[in-house]
Amino acid sequence: MAEHLTVGRVAELTGVSVRTLHHYDEIGLMRPSARTSAGHRAYSTADVERLREVLAYRRLGFGLREIADLVDDPATDAVARLRRLRGLLLEQRDRAAAMVTAIDEELGARAMGIRTTPEEQLRMVGAQLYETIGSAYPATRRTEPRIAARVWEALGDARTVLNVGAGTGSYEPADREVTAVEPSAVMRAWRGPDAAPCVAAGAESLPFADQSFDAAMAFSTVHHWHDPVAGLREMRRVARRVVVFTHDASDTGWRRRFWLTRDYLPEVAGLVAGRPSADELARAIGGRLEPVLIPWDCADGFLEAYWRRPEAYLNDAVRRAVSVWTRVGPEAEQRAVHTLRDDLSSGRWAERNRELAALDAAELGLRLLVA
Ligand SMILES: C[S@@+](CC[C@H](N)C(=O)[O-])C[C@H]1O[C@@H](n2cnc3c(N)ncnc32)[C@H](O)[C@@H]1O
Q1: 230 pocket-lining for ligand 1 (C-beta < 6 Å)
Q2: DSSP state of 263
Q3: CB-based burial label for 59 (10 Å; 0-12, 13-18, 19+)
Q4: How buried is residue 16: exposed, middle or buried, by Cβ count under 10 Å (0-12/13-18/19+)?
Q5: Cα-only R_g, the chain
Q6: Beta bridge partners of 323
Q7: How far is the CA of 82 from the centre of ligand 1 (A)?
Q8: Nearest CA, atom 13, ligand 1
Q9: What is the pLDDT of residues 16-63, one digit of tens each?
Q10: Considering the entire predicted model, what is its pTM?
C-alpha cells in the first residue's frame, strides 16, 4: 500500500474535503482504485494523476460533467492533456492580469474624478488580454518596412494570403488578396475601413477548408496562442505556404540575448516556460528558421524594438502596447522601470551595454519560420 495515498492524505495535500472526494467517487468522476485494510479509499499514482487534472479543471471553473469529458477524452495522451491544461491556466492568468490593468485604469480615472460607465465596468469582468491592452496598441505598433519586406518576400508568389492573429493588420501586403483572422473584438475594431476582411476566430481552429489559401502568415502572435503547434498545423492545413515571425522561447535564445528580459524582467522566464522553442515549432510543420535582426530604429514598438533606445521603456505608452508588461503584473513592471531609470541615470546601463552603441541591427532571437 506504500505507493497509495489515503483519502485523508489526499484531502490534506489538496485542500479539498474528504466529503468532496467521496462525492467524486460516487458520481464516477474519480474512483480511487484501492482500499486500505481498514476499508478507506486509497489513490494509486495513476489515480493521483487523474485527480490532479480533475481538481485543476475544477479550479478553472469547469462543471463536473465537462470535466468528466475532458479527463476521459481518449483522443489525447497525458502530455497533450497537460499542455491543454497549461494553456487554460495561462489564459486565466492573462485574464486576471487584464482585469488588474482595467481596475488600475479605473482607479486612475476615479482619482481624477472620472466615473466609468456601466458598460465599461461590465467589459472589465470579461476582459481578455487584448480586450484590455488593445486600446493602447496603435500608439506605437505599426509596420516596420524592413521586416515587412522579409515577410512579403517569404510569401513568394502567393496571391491569396491568410493573416492569422492579424490585429490591426500592420503586416498585410497591399498587393495580394488578404483574409484576416483575429479573436479580439477590440483589435478587430482598430482595423481601418479599407483593411482586409477579418474573421473572428483563433489560430487553433481556423474556419477554412483545407488548402484554401496560397499562403498563411502570422506576425508576433504565436506566443499568445493556447496551443501554438495546433495553430501552426491549422495554418499548414489551410495554406500551401506558412510564414511566421516569432521569437525563440528557448532558454538559450531570445530571453537571454536581450538586456531587458535578462537584467530587468526575469519574470518573463515564467511566461515562456514550457512554450515550444522556435526549433520545435519549425519541426512541427517541417519548416526552416531564418534569423531576423532588429534595426536600431525599428518602427514597430514590439518588446525588443527599443534595444538601443532604452529610455523608451520608461514611457507608459510604449509599455502599454506590449502585452508582456501586463502579463508580468504591476509589481514586476514598476520594479523593472525603477531599476532601469536608476541605471540609466547612473550610467550603469550604458556601462553594461557598451557594445550596443556600435550596432545598427541586433540579433535578439527573433525568427522567420517558413514552411
Ligand atoms: C502582438 S499582437 C500582433 C498583431 C498583428 N499580427 C501585428 O503584428 O500587428 C498579437 C495578436 O494575437 C491575437 N491572438 C491572441 N490569441 C490568439 C489566438 N489563439 N489565435 C489567433 N490570434 C490570437 C491577439 O488578439 C492580438 O491581436
Answers
A1: no
A2: I
A3: exposed
A4: middle
A5: 24
A6: none
A7: 23
A8: 165
A9: 999 999 999 999 999 999 998 888 899 999 999 999 999 999 988 888
A10: 0.74
Q: What is the greatest pairwise CA distance in the chain?
A: 76
How confident is the model over 36-49, as pLDDT tens digits?
888 889 999 999 99
Inter-residue contact 319 to 333 (CB < 8 Å)? yes
| CA–CA distance, 129 with 95 (Å, rounded to integer) | 6
The grid coordinates listed for 86 are: 497549461
Phi, psi torsion values for 65, nearest 5 degrees: -70, -40
Torsion of CA 330, 140, 299, 289, to 10 degrees: 60
- The residue whose C-alpha atom lies closest to atom 26 belonging to ligand 1 is 167
In short, whether 171's Cβ falls inside 6 Å of ligand 1 is yes
Q: Whose CA is nearest to atom 27 of ligand 1?
A: 167
User: Residues 126, 130, 133, 139: what is their CA dihedral angle, to the nearest 10 degrees?
Assistant: -150
- What are the backbone angles phi and psi of residue 113, rounded to the nearest 5°? 80, 10
Could you give the CA distance from residue 139 to residue 318 in angstroms, rounded to a whole number? 8
Confidence of residue 337 (pLDDT cuts 50, 70, 90): very high
d(CA 37, CA 41): 10
Cβ neighbourhood burial of 19 (10 Å; 0-12, 13-18, 19+): exposed
Cell of 132: 484590455
- The string of DSSP letters for 179-240 reads EEE---HHHHHTS-TTSPPEE---TTS--S-TT-EEEEEEES-GGG-SSHHHHHHHHHHHEE
Nearest CA residue ID for atom 23, ligand 1 = 165
CB 242 within 8 A of CB 285: yes
Cα 148 to its chain centre, rounded Å, is 22
Mutate to test the pocket of ligand 1, among 224, 242, 246, 366 (most ligand atoms within 8 A of CB): 224
The SS3 assignment for 251 reads: coil
Q: DSSP states of 22-55 as a string?
A: HHHHHTTSS--SEE-TTS-EEE-HHHHHHHHHHH
Amino acid at 139: A
